[in-house]
Amino acid sequence: MDANEIRQKFLDFQVKKGHTIIQPAPLVLENDPTTLFTGAGMQPLLPYLLGKEHKDGTRLADSQPCLRLQDIEDVGDPRHTTVFEMLGNWSLGDYFKEEQIRNFFEFLTHEVGLDPAKIYVTCFIGNEKYGIPKDTEAAEIWQKVFAEAGVEAKIVEIGSAKDGDKRGILPGEHIFFYDDHENWWSRGGGCDSTPIGDPCGPDSEVFYDFGEDKQDVEKYGLAHPASDGARFMEIGNQVFMQYRRAEDGSFVELEKKNVDFGGGLERIAAAAIGSFDVFRTSLMKPIIDKLEEISGKSYDNNTDEMRVIADHIRGAYLLAAQGLIPSNKAHGYAMRRLLRRAILRALDLGISSNFLAEIVPIVSANYRELPDSILTHREDALKVMLKEENAFRQTLNKGLKELHKMGDSLNGTDLFKLQDTYGFPFELSVEECFREGIKLSENYRDEFEAALKEQRERSQTASKGMFKGGLEDHGEQTVKYHTATHLLLAALQKHVSPDICQKGSNITAERVRFDFNVDHKLTDEEIAAVENQVNEWIAADLPVVFDEYDKAYARDTLKAHGQFWDKYPDVLKVYTIGDFDNPISREVCGGPHVEHTGVLGKFVIKKEESSAAGIRRIKAVLE
């Protein structure tokens, strides 16, 4: 059974159970500034889980393409991908735990054909602090369902994942209680982080056992469902939204309880073929097969490279097929990053000529079942992707020329300069040197790492003088305020005076305090113009990107804003907000920042006052 069959079986099964199939949402959601892409199957359904009535009733199901760039560095292992498809079903105040658990177990064992003895589940252990009881109801339902399938399923308490790493599992154990780090769902995370007013509740995750031989005790500890090892893979999660967090921080029962289920199509397909490697499923194996053909290399010996290519090209295709083009702006920048990482890995495989023309049609065929309503530009996708491939290869060729200009003997510092200045990756430089007989110093890798480390340390030193008072911490809200400060400075320069500079700031998780030079008290009109401008830039969801540059290049060519040029190191970090060639803001800064402005919220200036002679102070908040 391939993944396309599983998708269709799931949708047919849900119809049989009384659900209405709804159209999947685009990867880029309109009017949702909280995230770049649809990253979960429930994301488009959130208004209805919060109480809004859905036109199609109380039982819904779909198959939703998703993209999560936060997993990009993990791609290369057998199960992490940036793009995936989430099979979902929802009960909006209709059925609850019993029907959901039974239905999903029936789908896995009867429709997909999974061995019930290889299925393991987790439930919420409860939270004494908030008076939330252990979810014995879900555990007992699971125990009955297992028994009906002829599987003895003992219930055990684990607690934290670390406790599980020490304990492991014993024969007959199939149902495990974990704490709110593993089995509590809210938009904020665990119980303590659940936002006031939000629906929330315990969840029950379902895992598939790929065998004891996948257990790596030395690296991950003893295997159990919530461990990091390869033995158990989560294939679905059932969220039981039965609480709401009240104004006083307590949790109260909801009158209408919801079910939010999401199952990974790629992971269920991996379980169906008995492979813990999702890249061997029908959604990606044809891509791997083609890569083996055009590179002349095997997947078994080049797994990381081929997995990254297969994953990233899928993601870039879905974005291109929805009408996006690579750029330096938020969504386009993400697409560009996926494509360029894939092209670099293709070079690692020795594929030096354009290869997308052979790979993209395979990806397109795998998504032929997705509706035209979200893939509105299928026919243009390959052309858009080929244009980016050609442009990036030209950039790489320029770096190659610079390498050959440096002579017939290079050291690690030379290789660092090629990567830092021309974007020519270190490993490609090494490969080219070996191929062309260019001599490398004995310790070239150590020299490269030393140069990289020195640059980072210089950048950190530079950033210490950037903000008098600086950041209170590096928490999410503080980082948002830090980014908003860049927008505030740019707005002041635009609407008050281009000569304004930062003269100090203090940033916490609750507000920003910003000092700047100006010779007058700001008028109400100026304050309104600055505030409105910052909010316009936030609403535009501009990308926030950084790179490291030579000081002279940052100052004279990029025209980056900075205050301590005589104190800065030779190489420093520069943050750019907006289009790279025509930015809203470009500042020397050590970070950290958000990745795009749309997540900041509403910017409100609370006070404008004198700080010292010729220095004014603005206090502002994000709402």
How are the SSEs ordered, and which strands pair?
Blueprint: H1 3-16, E1 20-21, H2 46-49, E2 59-67, E3 83-92, H3 97-112, E4 119-124, H4 136-148, E5 154-159, H5 161-167, E6 173-178, H6 180-183, E7 184-185, E8 199-209, H7 217-220, E9 232-245, E10 251-264, H8 265-272, H9 285-295, H10 303-321, H11 330-348, H12 356-366, H13 381-405, E11 409-410, H14 412-422, H15 426-436, E12 439-440, H16 444-464, E13 469-471, H17 476-495, E14 502-507, E15 512-517, H18 524-539, E16 544-550, H19 551-557, E17 571-577, E18 585-588, E19 603-612, E20 615-622
Parallel strand pairs: 1-2, 4-6, 5-6, 11-12, 13-14
Antiparallel strand pairs: 2-3, 3-10, 4-8, 7-8, 8-9, 9-10, 14-15, 15-20, 16-17, 17-18, 19-20
Question: How would you explain this protein's 3D organization?
Answer:
With 623 residues, the chain is of the alpha+beta class. Among the domains are: 3-279, 2-Layer Sandwich (BirA Bifunctional Protein, domain 2); 465-622, 2-Layer Sandwich (Threonyl-tRNA Synthetase, Chain A, domain 2), CATH 3.30.980.10. The chain contains 19 helices and 20 strands. It has helices at residues 3-16, 46-49, 97-112, 136-148, 161-167, 180-183, 217-220, 265-272, 285-295, 303-321, 330-348, 356-366, 381-405, 412-422, 426-436, 444-464, 476-495, 524-539, 551-557, and strands at 20-21, 59-67, 83-92, 119-124, 154-159, 173-178, 184-185, 199-209, 232-245, 251-264, 409-410, 439-440, 469-471, 502-507, 512-517, 544-550, 571-577, 585-588, 603-612, 615-622. The strands form 4 sheets. Strands 1, 2, 3, 4, 5, 6, 7, 8, 9 and 10 form a 10-stranded mixed beta sheet that branches. Strands 13-14-15-20-19 form a 5-stranded mixed beta sheet, with helices on one face. A 3-stranded antiparallel beta sheet has the order 16-17-18. A hairpin with a 5-residue loop joins strand 9 and strand 10. Helix 10 packs antiparallel against helix 11 (330-348), helix 13 (381-405) packs antiparallel against helix 14 (412-422) and helix 17 crosses helix 18. The relative contact order is 0.08.
